[in-house]
Amino acid sequence: MAATATAPTTAADSNARAKLLRFALKQDAIGSGANGLVFLAVAAIFGSMFGLPAAFLVPVGAFLVAFAATLLHLAARPVVNRAAVIAVMVVNVAWVAASAEMLIAGWFPLTGLGTAFVVVQAAVVAGFTGLQFAGLRKASGQHRAARVSGRPLDGGTHPLR
Fold first, then answer.
1. Which runs of E-coded beta strand occur in 1-147?
2. 99 contacts 52 by C-beta, under 8 angstroms
3. CA within 20 to 30 Å of 142's CA: 51, 94, 107, 157, which one?
4. What is the pLDDT of residues 82-129, one digit of tens each?
């Protein structure tokens, strides 16, 4: 069986492949961080407008701020950790599922505005997840094919590990 080789990928090529993924992570960080800060800063006001208790919004806000910091850290790394991005996508899918469950099970006496907020933020998170998935696929386009021999053909500069 004849083996074929590809030219090593430069670090610049690797970064270009990971551009969409980094963009998706940063956008998720901005949205998560903004929501988290609002939840923390004005939980009582926000809660009364939407029918969500402040005792729920404060820990969720703290989680979102920490999650946003994690996303920014991942996006800034020279090599984006594939497993970490998959974990982020799992958290996002769980968030969307929990949002749907919140509406279906009636966890809280949401106002009309609160219901709309839960639906919109779940849709936005689903969109971030879709972008992250597309970015991960684009960034790892050569990754799977290059692993035939058990080591990357790109000289180790692939944007995912």
1. none
2. no
3. 94
4. 999 999 999 999 999 999 999 999 999 999 999 999 999 999 999 999
Q: How far apart are CA 38 and CA 54, in angstroms?
A: 11
Which three-class secondary structure state does DSSP give residue 160?
strand
State the burial class of residue 138 (Cβ atoms within 10 Å of its Cβ: 0-12, 13-18, 19+): middle
Separation of alpha carbons 129 and 110, rounded Å:
25
Q: Which two tokens stand for residue 27?
A: 């956008």
Q: What is the pTM of this model?
A: 0.79
Reduced to 3 states (helix: H, G, I; strand: E, B; else coil), residue 29 is: helix
Strands (E), the chain: none
Q: Helix (H, G, I), strand (E, B), or coil: what is residue 158?
A: coil
Burial 85-112 (b: 16+ CB within 10 A, else e): beebbebbeebbeebeebbeeeebebee
The packing angle between helices 43-50 and 54-76, to 10°, is 110
Torsion angle, alpha carbons of 10, 14, 19, 25, to 10: -140
- CA 135/CA 138 separation, integer angstroms: 5
